[in-house]
Specification:
With 286 residues, the protein is α/β, with parallel strands linked by helices. It has one domain: P-loop containing nucleotide triphosphate hydrolases (Rossmann fold, 3-Layer(aba) Sandwich), CATH 3.40.50. It is 47% helix and 10% strand. It is built from 13 helices and 5 strands. A 5-stranded parallel beta sheet has the order 2-3-1-4-5, with helices on both faces.
């Protein structure tokens, strides 16, 4: 592995599809939902709790700790692929940006976003398609008991708020960390690329070309009618949540869902509840 990059952002934005497209390039390996942020999290807390770590000189500990994770991540990916460029996809990387910059300041970050109204519509589709799946608000502490009125029994207006406010939910968690991501991006503009789902959906070839320029890679002629499956299958059932990483083999243009699903009042509820998001990424909507 010559270079590690990261893909983060929000759910239901087409990130899995975009990673599958990039994976066709013989130089680029893309992951499914990468578990390595959990390794970083575990190492962070253990190195702060165990006396043998704490007793080390702080600078020695920091250098050894960083190199341990850096080399471990390299070894992880080199067992998976011999491609020189790796893109690790996980929204949780947004919570470890100090770590990742220490691993390699040359890494690039692809942040994929979408109109929140269409993200919520996508979750609504999954809610009705997979009734056994739970949204994070449906779980009590420890996941052993459940509230009397789960998410699907609440009104649409209540569900809308739950989708983007639940701090540990699929949408709420990365949405909360997004201002921090943008703070880091403003300080390191050459390392971050904001890709809106709508822009990719409208002009996919142009969007991929700009993405390659950002990564410093030569443009590649992708076959959007024969998008390859990921090299490692991701079992969505294991998440026990409103998750689906299944993608089509042929790229299709998608129309906005929210105009057919939401009233004007419901649409405004999302926009006003997330005004910073729309001012920053979708000012034309305001």
């Amino acid at each position: 592995m010559q270079q590690l990059h990261y893909c983060l952002g929000l759910p239901r934005t087409g990130s899995t599809l975009i990673m599958n497209i990039l994976n066709e390039n013989p130089r680029i390996f893309t992951t499914g939902t990468c578990p390595l942020p959990a390794f970083v999290e575990a190492c962070k807390y253990k190195s702060s709790e165990i006396l043998e770590f704490i007793s080390l000189d702080k600078d020695v500990l920091n250098k050894s700790y960083t190199n341990f994770l850096r080399q471990g991540m390299r070894g992880w990916f080199e067992e998976m692929t011999d491609k020189p460029i790796v893109i690790s996809k996980s929204r949780v990387w947004a919570e470890h940006l100090p770590h990742t910059f220490l691993f390699d300041p040359n890494s690039k970050y692809i942040v994929i976003l979408r109109d929140l109204r269409d993200i919520i519509c996508s979750f609504e589709t999954l809610l009705w398609k997979y009734p056994q799946a739970l949204y994070e608000k449906d779980r009590e502490e420890g996941g052993t008991s459940y509230p009397l009125y789960p998410t699907h029994m609440k009104s649409f207006e209540e569900r809308i708020k739950i989708y983007y406010t639940a701090s540990q939910s699929n949408l709420g968690r990365p949405l909360i960390t997004l201002p921090h991501v943008m703070e880091v991006a403003q300080k390191n503009p050459d390392n971050f690329f904001i890709l809106r789902h709508e822009d990719f959906n409208e002009k996919p070839k142009e969007a991929i070309k700009v993405l390659y320029e950002f990564l410093g890679e030569q443009d590649f002629d992708h076959d959007f009618d024969n998008i390859p499956k990921p090299e490692y299958y991701e079992h969505d059932t294991s998440y026990r949540a409103l998750v689906s990483h299944k993608t089509e083999s042929k790229l299709k243009k998608l129309e906005p869902r929210w105009p057919k699903v939401m009233t004007k009042e419901q649409s405004n509820l999302i926009i006003e509840g997330n005004r910073w998001y729309y001012e920053t990424f979708y000012p034309e909507i305001l």
